[in-house]
Amino acid sequence: MASPGTRADEEAEDLDVEEALALVKEKPVPSHGAPVPAGAPSPAAHQGTSQGTPLRPPGPHHHATPWPEARATAERAARAAVRAAHRDPVSAPLDAALGLTLAAPLAALTDLPSFDTSAMDGWAVAGPGPWAVRDEGVLAGHAEPARLTDGEAVRIATGARVPQDTTAVLRTEHGRTDGRDRLQATRDVAHGQDIRPRGQECRRGDQLLPVGTLVTPAVLGLAAAAGYDTLTAVPRPRVDVLVLGDELLTGGLPHDGLIRDALGPMLPPWLRALGAEVRTVRRIGDDAEALYRTVTASDADLLVTTGGTAAGPVDHVHPVLDRIGAELLVDGVKVRPGHPMLLARIKEEQHLVGLPGNPLAAISGLLTLAEPLLRTLAARQAPEPYALPLRDAVHGHPYDTRLVPVVLRGDGAVPLRYNGPAMLRGIAAADALAVVPPGGARPGQETELLDLPWTTGGIGVCFT
Fold first, then answer.
1. Which residue numbers delimit the MoaB/Mog domain (predicted)?
2. Which of 22, 76, 130, 374 would suit a FRET pair with 198, their CA atoms being 20 to 30 Å apart?
3. What is the reported pTM?
4. Is the CATH code 2.40.420.20 the one for domain 117-196?
């Protein structure tokens, strides 16, 4: 295999205008907590203790990639893949567009509203009161009503088209009829009140949203209101998940040295929350030939493997990658848990992320390598780094970054127990992962946080 970080990484830095449709400029989006200043190193980038004392670098045989550099490498790899793949935007029906990124501006196809409408239930009135009330009312969805003349009123429902020459809409609670069945206003009536005029929100042709906008439920509503049945969007990156290990059970209780597979159920929805289309989850076991056949037959943009990334007797990921001539971009990361993760380029437009087999270590690999790669392939905007003070001290690794589950409480982050590589109890209760620098963090120290996709209040809550 070639040495890490070579070939097309540098070429991917410059993108032309056409590629901007599939790869939006990384514009930070606001998040809670204190932002990390642009251009400043993240807390995890410091090679020292929480008090800033430099540590002696690890020995010459430690070749793992620093955590921030590994994430940047994954982004560069995705840019190179976008350039190589030349994937065209897709036309997605509104019911299938949630979580995609707009590849064309959203321009209004009609005025909004497209006619003058009532903003409230009440009466449409013409001229000064009191008013004679027509017998028939005006409901939403009906044809244009008859014109009003001065001194006339008509019952009207919210959203209904107001008659021509309407002066205002008088709310139900602001009017009453007198003994002569004439409508009286109980407060002053201003010209145009409670009428939504045609084009109040936008005119036909106005740009509503730019290229690169993430399609949220609100975007779907706006698109529908503006006349769209489909949206032009960046296609979802296609992912195949390969679960390795003979010791894994898919049901029942652990027994006879066998354990339940936690990653098979967990990874597909997590990958979907990151913007991917998960095409298949295949269980390979500890079978080098089956792994080789599956990897070489896949046309997915990204293959994600679980386990088998170390150097044990049944760790087949490295030998298979070597056999197919893949290029290792990241071979181990200076992060705990998850140190033996890897990123390989199989083809110019195809990559493999090898996750460790321990569940929390696999999540570490998912957020370190798969998240930036998938985000870039899906043309999602990068979240702005932010930091919050830790309520408690967190023990650090001598020279590696640590990712520790935390819950957010007020203006701080509380580290959770059960944060070992094989544990899921902490991450299941967590709001985020704290990026703890080498040497650890003291109480009150501001630490960079990685939000989990279902806790950000954004599109990540959708897993299908």
1. 240-376
2. 130
3. 0.80
4. no
